[in-house]
Amino acid sequence: LPDLKDKVALITGAGSGIGRAAAMMLAQQGMKVCLADLKDDRREQTKQDIIAAGGQAITVDVDVSNPNRVAQAFEQTVKTWERLDVVFANAGINGVLAPIEDMKPEDWDHTLFVNLKGTFLCVKHAIPYMKEGGGSIVITSSINGSRSFSGFGMTAYSTSKAGQVAFTKMAALELARYKIRVNAICPGSIKTNIGENTLPTSELEKIKIPVNYPQGSQPLDHAPGVPEQVADLVAFLASNASSHITGTELFIDGAESLL
Ligand code: NAD
């Protein structure tokens, strides 16, 4: 993907999982990357690994649901690298899983704030820096927000992920005049750290959340995907190889959502 060389990307959730793999991949393509994440140690680890592999990276401490921090992250990126071409709005959480009747409103809000408001803020604050030269924005939704609604207790998560798809389409329409493309990716189960703050399956069963979805049993490989497979799709959407693709949601799930 030669057109990515020397261009600049900001990646949220770059300290772990899909964001980390995408940051490594984009840096490998010659992009200068800004690694945005809440967790200091993870951000710094990704940066060290990129630099050790000969790439260029900076880090910013960001909570994507905080408007000022998001604005500062973009300012810092453009101050350092003098341009912005790609945004990967990827940071997200499972949040608290609970049946609707037991879901605390503040837990609902938190999931929506990080996953949905965070996406809005990342696109909003990217526009001033991209509207002259165009660019590509990729948003990490999920099969749970678009095609597969099977995770009991995950209403807040699924609602946020569905909202991201609607947001992607509206943003693509609005930003086409600036030659900014906006696409959503919808992964199935991918081996990452996203479950670390979520109750394990055995505990969910105890609180009567039936875990009825066949997590990870993807027809293509009979296993969950890995972040590097998602990173390949992000690089494609970031590059001119996808120059006529905008406003879409792309499934990357080994046919999990068709079960
Ligand atoms: P992960 O937990 O491995 O990585 C997420 C990263 O985001 C972490 O480094 C975390 O510190 C960071 N983060 C969390 N909240 C943040 C905030 N408020 N501000 C900034 N950074 C924050 O998880 P992952 O699986 O790589 O998740 C990335 C995205 O992929 C999420 O949007 C998730 O919903 C989506 N997704 C994951 C799967 C899966 O099976 N892993 C499936 C579909 C969609």
UniProtKB/TrEMBL annotation:
<dbReference type="Pfam" id="PF13561">
    <property type="entry name" value="adh_short_C2"/>
</dbReference>
<dbReference type="InterPro" id="IPR002347">
    <property type="entry name" value="SDR_fam"/>
</dbReference>
<keyword id="KW-0560">Oxidoreductase</keyword>
<protein>
    <submittedName>
        <fullName>SDR family oxidoreductase</fullName>
    </submittedName>
</protein>
<dbReference type="InterPro" id="IPR036291">
    <property type="entry name" value="NAD(P)-bd_dom_sf"/>
</dbReference>
<comment type="similarity">
    <text>Belongs to the short-chain dehydrogenases/reductases (SDR) family.</text>
</comment>
